[in-house]
C-alpha cells in the first residue's frame, strides 16, 4: 500500500455519513408535531388546541364528551396513522432498495393481495353463515375476524415468499414471483366476488378503502410493538441496505451474506406492511412516495439517514392524509386510499419531473 | 503451494449446472497463478468463457471441478467478510445510486471492515481518502455519482474497490462504454495501481490493442480453451495471440500488431513513402481493399510527395497529382474501372 496520502483538505467539509443539518431534523419533527396536534383537534367536532392540551395533561374540567373523543378516538387514531405511515414508508424504502426499482412499494411481494384474499374469504364465508362477528363497533375494518383473516393471508404469502427468498439466486426472480402471487390472489378475490351478494361485497370494498380509525387501545398493544420492532429492524439493516444499493453482485463482494440479509429485509418489510394492512386495510401511495420525497429532501441514498427521515415524513404524511379524509368540521369521510393517492401522486410526479435523478435511486 | 502466489487454480473446470445436475463445461483443466504486483488482462473471443472464469475466480459461481485458492486456501473456506477483505470487484453492470456522493460510494468499500452500523473509524476514513487519491478523483469527492461521466464513474468504482484494501482486484470489462482516451487512461491507472500497491489486478477486456501495450501478462482464453498465460510479446511471437482471435476474414498481423482484413479484392499496390504520411497512406489503401507491397513490386505504384511543407500523392505511371488521400483513392478506383472495361 502507498502510505503517502495525507488527508486532503476537502475532508473537513464533508463526512461520509451525509451531514443533515439539525435544523432539517428539527423541521421534520416540528411539522410532525403540528400535524399530530391538528389530528387531535380537528374532526367532525372542532376543538381549540388549548382544550386538546388540557385533555392530554389530564385536566378534569373539560367536558367528559370532548375528553372521550380525544382519548378514546382521536389519540389512538393519530398514533395508528403515525405508526402505519412510518411502517409503510420504511417498508417501501427497503423494497425499492432491495429490488433497485423506484416503483417498488411495500406490496410488490403480494403481501396486501394475500391479506385481501383472507379478508375476501372471511367476508364471503361469514356473510354466508349469517354475519357473525362481522359488524362490531368501529365498522368493518376494525373487526377482530377481519384482522385475523388479513393477518393469516399476509402471513401465508410471507412464508411462501421467505421460503423462496432463501432459495433463489436473484432478487429479480423474487420480485417477479412476488408480483405473480399478487395477481393470483387478486384473481381469486375477483372469482369470489362473482359468487357474493351485494352487501357483503360492500363490506369488502369498505375494507379496501383503508382507515386509521379502527385500532382500539386494546389492539394497539399488539399493533404498536410489532411495528416498532419492524422499524428497529430496518434501522439495524441500514448497512446491508446501503450495500444493496450497488446490486447483489457488489453487495456479495463487499462481504454481505446476500441470502440472509435478503431474508431479514423481506421479513421486516413484510411484517410492517402485513400488520398495517391487517389493521388498516391496504393503504397505497405512502410506501412508494415517501421514500422518494425523503431522498429528494435530504439529497442522500444513505439508509442510516433515510430510515429515520422516512419514519418522520411517513408519519407526517399519513396524519395529513387522514386529516383531509375526515374533511374537518363536517360529517363527511372520504376513503383514505383516495386521499393518499390524490395528494400524493401529483407530488411525486412533480418531484420526479423536476429532478430526474430520483429514478436512479 | 508457493506462498508468494495469491490466487491459483488447480485443474479448474468452469461452466454451468443445469437443472437435473447436467453439467456444461465451458473450459476445463485451468491451472494457473496470479502473482502480486502484476496487471493481468484476460482476453478471449466472445463466448469463450471470460465472464464465467471471472465469476468462478471471485466465488460468485462454484467451479464444476478443481479448486480456486487464495493464499493457499480454497475460496469456499472464506467467509463472505474475510474474502471481501482480500478480494474486491468492479463489475460490468451499471450502478444507479442516485444522489450518493462519490466519497460515500468509495466509503462503501469499507463495508467488510466496519461494525454492524457501518461506522467509519479513523483508519477507515484514511483508507477511503487514500483510495480516492490513488485514483486521482479528489476533485470529484463530493459530487453526486449520478452527475459523473462514464469514465469518472468507473474511476469512482475502482476507488471503491481499492478502499476494500484487497490483495487482488478483479474487473469485469471495466473499460466497456468508455471512449478511447478514457480507456488508455484507465489501463495505465490499473497498471500503476498493481505496481505501486503490490496488488494483483485482473481485467477482462475486449481491448486487445490496449491490453497488448499495457498488461504485464495476458491470459488468453480461446474458444474451448485451454487458458494460455504469458507476457504479451511472447504470446504474439508464438502466434498464440493470432490463433486465439483468428476468424473468418480477419487475421492478426504480427508486423503491425493489428488485426487486418484478409480480403484484398482491389489487388496489390506498391507504395513509395515513409514516416507518418506513409503509414496513414498504407492504412487508407488497406481500408479501401488493397494489399500494400512495401517492396515496390506491383503493377500500380503510389508515391507520397512531400514538398513545400505539404503532402500530396501521385500514381507513378500517370503522373497526376492528388492533393488528398480521398482524391487518390478515387483516382485508383477510376483506373480499376477503366481497366475492367478494356478487358
Features:
heterodimer; A: 361 residues; mainly alpha; 14 helices; globular; B: 343 residues; six-stranded mixed beta sheet; five-stranded mixed beta sheet; 17 strands; 34% helix
Residue-averaged pLDDT of chain B: 86
Strand pairing plus helix content of chain A: what structural class?
Answer: mainly alpha
Oligomer: heterodimer
Helical run tally of chain B: 11
Q: State the shape of chain A.
A: globular
Number of strands of chain A: 0
Backbone CA Rg of chain B: 25 Å
Strand order of the largest sheet of chain B: 6-7-8-3-9-10
Topology:
The complex is a heterodimer of chains A (361) and B (343).
Chain A: H1 22-41, H2 49-56, H3 64-98, H4 111-128, H5 144-165, H6 171-194, H7 198-209, H8 217-236, H9 238-244, H10 248-253, H11 258-280, H12 286-298, H13 303-325, H14 336-354
Helix pairs in contact in A: 1-3, 1-13, 3-8, 3-11, 3-12, 3-13, 4-5, 4-6, 4-7, 5-6, 5-11, 8-11, 12-13, 12-14, 13-14
Chain B: E1 7-18, E2 22-34, E3 39-43, H1 50-57, E4 65-70, E5 73-74, H2 80-86, E6 87-90, H3 102-107, H4 122-135, H5 150-163, E7 168-172, H6 180-197, E8 200-204, H7 208-214, E9 217-220, E10 228-230, H8 232-237, H9 240-245, E11 250-253, E12 258-261, E13 268-272, H10 275-287, E14 291-293, E15 300-307, E16 310-315, E17 321-322, H11 325-342
Parallel strand pairs in B: 3-8, 3-9, 6-7, 7-8, 13-14, 13-15
Antiparallel strand pairs in B: 1-2, 1-4, 4-5, 9-10, 11-12, 15-16, 16-17
Helix pairs in contact in B: 4-5
Can you characterise this structure?
The complex is a heterodimer of chains A (361) and B (343). Helices cover 69% and strands 0% of the residues of chain A. Chain A has 14 helices and no strands. In chain A, 47% of the residues are buried. Chain A has 361 residues and is mainly α. Chain A is globular, with a radius of gyration of 22 Å. In chain A, helix 4 packs antiparallel against helix 5, helix 12 crosses helix 13 and helix 13 crosses helix 14. Chain B is α/β, with parallel strands linked by helices and 343 residues long. In chain B, 34% of the residues lie in helices and 27% in strands. Chain B is built from 11 helices and 17 strands. In chain B, helix 4 packs antiparallel against helix 5. Chain B starts with 6 loop residues before the first strand and ends with a helix. Classes of the chains: A mainly alpha (361), B alpha/beta (343). At the A-B interface, helix 9 and helix 10 of A face helix 2, strand 6, helix 3 and helix 4 of B.
Amino acid at each position: 500500500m502507498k502510505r503517502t496520502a495525507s488527508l486532503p483538505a476537502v475532508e473537513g467539509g464533508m463526512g461520509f455519513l451525509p451531514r443533515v443539518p439539525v435544523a432539517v431534523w428539527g423541521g421534520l419533527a416540528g411539522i410532525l408535531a403540528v400535524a399530530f396536534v391538528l389530528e387531535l383537534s380537528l374532526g367532525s367536532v372542532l376543538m381549540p388546541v388549548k382544550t386538546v392540551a388540557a385533555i392530554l395533561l389530564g385536566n378534569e374540567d373539560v367536558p367528559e364528551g370532548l375528553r372521550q373523543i380525544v382519548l378514546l378516538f382521536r389519540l389512538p387514531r393519530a398514533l395508528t396513522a403515525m405508526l402505519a405511515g412510518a411502517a409503510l414508508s420504511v417498508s417501501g424504502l427497503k423494497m425499492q432498495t432491495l429490488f433497485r426499482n423506484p416503483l417498488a412499494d411495500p406490496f410488490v411481494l403480494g403481501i396486501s393481495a394475500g391479506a385481501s384474499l383472507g379478508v375476501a374469504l372471511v367476508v364471503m364465508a361469514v356473510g354466508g353463515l349469517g354475519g357473525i362477528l362481522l359488524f362490531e363497533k368501529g365498522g368493518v375494518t376494525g373487526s377482530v375476524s377481519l384482522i385475523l383473516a388479513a393477518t393469516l393471508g399476509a402471513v401465508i404469502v410471507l412464508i411462501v415468499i421467505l421460503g423462496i427468498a432463501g432459495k433463489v439466486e436473484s432478487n429479480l426472480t423474487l420480485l417477479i414471483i412476488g408480483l405473480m402471487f399478487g395477481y393470483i390472489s387478486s384473481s381469486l378475490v375477483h372469482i369470489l366476488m362473482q359468487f357474493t351478494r351485494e352487501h357483503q361485497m360492500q363490506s369488502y370494498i369498505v375494507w379496501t378503502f383503508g382507515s386509521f380509525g379502527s385500532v382500539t387501545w386494546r389492539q394497539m398493544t399488539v399493533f404498536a410493538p410489532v411495528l416498532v420492532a419492524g422499524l428497529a429492524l430496518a434501522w439495524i439493516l441500514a448497512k446491508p441496505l446501503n450495500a444493496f444499493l450497488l446490486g447483489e453482485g457488489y453487495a456479495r463482494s463487499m462481504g454481505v451474506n446476500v441470502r440472509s440479509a435478503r431474508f431479514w429485509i423481506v421479513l421486516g418489510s413484510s411484517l410492517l406492511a402485513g400488520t398495517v394492512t391487517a389493521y388498516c386495510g391496504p393503504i397505497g401511495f405512502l410506501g412508494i412516495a415517501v421514500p422518494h420525497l425523503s431522498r429528494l429532501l435530504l439529497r442522500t441514498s444513505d439508509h442510516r439517514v433515510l430510515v429515520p427521515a422516512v419514519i418522520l415524513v411517513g408519519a407526517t404524511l399519513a396524519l395529513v392524509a387522514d386529516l383531509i379524509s375526515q374533511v374537518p368540521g363536517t360529517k363527511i369521510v372520504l376513503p383514505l386510499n383516495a386521499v393518499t393517492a390524490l395528494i400524493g401522486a401529483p407530488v411525486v410526479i412533480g418531484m420526479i419531473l423536476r429532478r430526474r435523478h430520483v429514478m436512479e435511486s | 503451494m508457493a506462498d508468494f502466489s495469491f490466487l491459483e487454480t488447480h485443474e479448474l473446470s468452469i461452466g454451468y449446472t443445469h437443472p437435473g445436475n447436467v453439467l456444461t463445461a465451458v473450459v476445463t483443466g485451468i491451472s494457473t497463478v496470479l502473482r502480486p504486483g502484476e496487471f493481468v488482462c484476460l482476453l478471449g473471443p466472445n463466448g469463450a468463457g471470460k465472464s464465467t472464469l471471472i465469476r468462478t475466480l471471485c466465488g460468485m459461481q462454484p467451479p464444476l471441478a478443481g479448486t480456486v485458492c487464495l493464499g493457499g486456501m480454497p475460496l469456499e473456506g472464506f467467509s463472505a467478510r474475510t474474502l471481501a477483505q482480500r478480494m474486491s470487484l468492479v463489475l460490468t453492470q451499471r450502478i444507479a445510486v442516485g444522489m450518493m456522493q462519490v466519497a460515500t460510494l468509495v466509503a462503501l468499500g469499507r463495508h467488510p471492515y466496519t461494525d454492524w452500523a457501518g461506522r467509519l473509524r479513523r483508519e477507515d476514513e484514511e483508507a477511503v481518502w487514500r483510495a480516492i487519491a490513488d485514483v486521482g478523483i479528489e476533485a470529484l469527492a463530493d459530487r453526486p455519482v449520478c452527475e459523473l461521466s462514464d469514465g469518472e464513474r468507473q474511476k469512482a468504482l475502482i476507488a471503491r474497490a481499492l478502499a476494500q484494501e484487497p490483495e487482488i482486484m478483479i474487473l469485469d470489462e471495466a473499460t466497456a462504454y468508455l471512449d478511447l482516451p478514457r480507456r488508455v487512461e484507465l489501463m495505465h491507472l490499473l497498471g500503476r495501481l498493481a505496481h505501486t500497491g503490490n496488488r494483483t489486478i485482473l481485467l477482462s477486456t475486449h481491448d486487445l490493442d490496449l491490453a497488448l501495450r499495457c498488461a504485464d501478462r495476458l491470459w488468453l482464453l480461446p474458444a474451448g480453451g485451454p487458458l494460455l498465460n504469458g507476457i504479451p510479446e511472447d504470446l504474439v511471437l508464438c502466434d498464440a495471440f493470432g490463433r486465439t482471435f483468428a476468424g473468418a476474414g480477419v487475421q492478426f498481423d504480427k508486423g503491425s500488431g493489428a488485426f487486418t482484413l484478409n480480403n484484398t479484392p482491389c489487388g496489390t499496390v506498391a507504395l513509395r513513402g515513409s514516416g507518418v504520411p506513409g503509414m496513414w497512406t498504407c492504412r487508407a489503401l488497406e481500408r479501401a481493399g488493397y494489399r500494400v507491397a512495401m517492396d515496390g513490386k506491383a503493377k500500380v505504384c503510389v508515391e507520397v510527395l512531400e514538398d513545400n511543407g505539404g503532402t500530396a500523392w501521385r500514381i507513378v505511371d500517370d503522373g497526376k497529382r492528388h492533393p488528398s488521400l480521398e482524391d487518390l483513392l478515387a483516382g485508383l478506383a477510376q483506373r480499376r474501372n477503366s481497366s475492367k472495361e478494356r478487358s
